[in-house]
Amino acid sequence: MTWVKDWVRSSPGTHIWLLVIGITSLVIASASEGLGQFLVHRTSSNIHELNEHPLPSLLISGFWIERPSSFLLYAVLFELLHANVERWTGTGRWLLTVGGADIAATLASQELVLLAIEGHRLPRSMTHVVDIGVSYGLAAAAGVLMYRLRPPWRYGWLAAVLIFFGIPLLTGATFTDFGHAIALTMGFAAWPLTPAAAEGREPQQEHGHDPAGPAAEPPPGRDPESRQER
Predict the structure, then answer these.
(1) Mean pLDDT of successive 10-residue segments in the chain (230 residues)?
(2) Which of 66, 103, 188, 211 could join 143 via S-S bond, C-beta 3.0 to 4.6 A?
(3) How far apart are CA 194 and CA 33, in angstroms?
(4) pTM here?
(5) What is the torsional sign of CA 64, 67, 70, 72?
(6) Closest Cα to residue 138, out of 193, 73, 198?
């Protein structure tokens, strides 16, 4: 169908990423248990792999998910979050935002693991922990998407994502929960990369919403062309 082709073409990065995840999920699903465990550990961005293969582990870990049965759920989330953000901001800015957030969240969360190991709060085996997946990028996209929504929907979305990511952080947080919080924060901080910021509009005025209400008529004697649009 035409609308499906148009949708995919408008967010190529999202769908290429999703296609690769689909392929790697099939690989995991069809592999033996031993091979599957080897693959998820070898492609992880854990402390061991970051020390041994820093660049490959940072780039590859985002193309694998540990449970192939979760692929359909991730496909829905990609369409809701990544595709909408990519269509709005453009592929380059979307990739810069979610890619940067994924790398930053990975490095920061693994640094927390290292500090916990050195402080004897975690076992040394955590240097080989499985750390793959796409959730950091999704968290960043959720943060950026807030600016795409009009008030009051924007505030409802903000409350929802803060609750979703905040509750695990406040109730026995894991290193992954810290990573989600970092990625979400970087998504919020990506406002300057949005089209609205490039046009000089404030976040609360996105999509033509002006809290001051409709534009008033200029006072007598004032040239209406002298007004500046925001």
Answers:
(1) 90 98 97 94 96 95 95 97 97 97 97 96 95 97 96 96 96 93 97 85 53 42 38
(2) 188
(3) 44
(4) 0.85
(5) positive
(6) 73
